[in-house]
């Protein structure tokens, strides 16, 4: 655990050597035609990674929070980029040239190990999402999406309450759940009427995470999902 913290601190200090950049909410950081030549470290704000389907629908693949790095898998793998990275809120990032990151990973095996572990855990999270998106109906897709958001962005409160500390709209939830906005809104209203979720300002609150999880087949542990790759 101490080595992991040390490696994380070294990585953050490395990015802090570079100039920071600000993006406004809605601003595109990387387009689908851009070849990644840098790695971004999020200081504050949220960034979504999405693709556009042939019929023009947005499909959200991942949401990055402060402390995350992107696009690691594209840049290090030298793979063509078919994805967008967009600020979901006002965002501040450090931007390090890819060649400098590659040199750091080649020289520091502790950082390389921690980054590899993070990528592996992130891949597991993506596989779990893929299963519930393929196997569930609309109701369970929305329920599972809220469980995922709780695990990824949740702050535990009393009596099983979880505050999702990510301002998110029905439209954005629909893009995570692979549903239309209209269908998503109907299912969210069901959950609110059942007393499973409510809103506190711009944020969603899960009233009892155990009860909500029992509505889906997702397993939930009361700890954040280490999904910051």
Task: Describe the structure in your own words.
The chain has 229 residues and is an alpha+beta fold. The protein folds into two domains: 1-122, Jelly Rolls, CATH 2.60.120.10; 137-215, Winged helix-like DNA-binding domain superfamily/Winged helix DNA-binding domain (Arc Repressor Mutant, subunit A). It has eight helices and twelve strands. The chain starts with a helix and ends in a 15-residue tail after the last helix. One of its GO terms (cellular component) is cytosol. This is HTH crp-type domain-containing protein. It holds the Pfam family cNMP_binding.
Q: State the share of residues found in helices, binned by percent.
A: 40-55%
CATH superfamily of the largest domain: Jelly Rolls
Task: Determine the structural class based on helices, strands and strand pairing.
Answer: alpha+beta
How many strands in all? 12
Pfam families: cNMP_binding, HTH_Crp_2
Keywords: DNA-binding, Transcription, Transcription regulation
GO molecular function: DNA binding; DNA-binding transcription factor activity
Organism: Candidatus Woesebacteria bacterium RBG_16_39_8b
Write the layout of secondary structure elements.
Elements: H1 2-15, E1 20-23, E2 28-30, E3 38-44, E4 47-52, E5 58-64, E6 69-70, H2 72-77, E7 84-87, E8 91-97, H3 98-107, H4 109-135, H5 138-153, E9 154-156, E10 162-164, H6 170-177, H7 181-193, E11 197-200, E12 203-206, H8 209-214
Antiparallel strand pairs: 1-8, 2-7, 3-6, 3-8, 4-5, 4-7, 9-10, 10-12, 11-12
GO molecular function: DNA binding; DNA-binding transcription factor activity
GO cellular component, one term: cytosol
Keywords: DNA-binding, Transcription, Transcription regulation
């Amino acid at each position: 655990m101490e080595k992991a913290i040390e490696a994380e601190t070294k990585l953050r200090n490395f990015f802090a050597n570079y100039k920071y950049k600000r993006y406004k909410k809605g601003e595109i950081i990387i387009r689908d035609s851009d070849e990644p030549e840098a790695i971004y470290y999020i200081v504050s704000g949220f960034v979504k990674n999405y693709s556009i389907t042939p019929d023009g629908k947005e499909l959200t693949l991942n949401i990055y929070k402060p402390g995350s790095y992107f696009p690691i898998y594209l840049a290090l793998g030298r793979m063509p980029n078919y994805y967008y990275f967009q600020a979901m809120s006002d965002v501040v990032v450090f931007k390090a040239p890819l060649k400098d990151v590659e040199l750091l990973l080649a020289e520091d095996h502790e950082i390389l190990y921690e980054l590899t572990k993070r990528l592996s855990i992130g891949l597991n999270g993506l596989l779990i999402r893929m299963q519930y998106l393929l196997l569930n109906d609309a109701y369970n897709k929305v329920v599972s999406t809220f469980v995922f958001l709780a695990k990824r962005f949740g702050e535990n409160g009393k009596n099983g309450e979880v505050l999702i500390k990510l301002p998110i709209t029905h439209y954005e939830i629909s893009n995570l759940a692979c549903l239309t906005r209209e269908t998503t809104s109907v299912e969210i209203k069901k959950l609110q009427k059942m007393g499973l979720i409510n809103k506190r300002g711009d944020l969603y609150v899960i009233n009892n995470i155990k009860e909500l999880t029992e509505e889906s087949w997702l397993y939930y542990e009361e700890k954040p999902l280490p999904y910051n790759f």
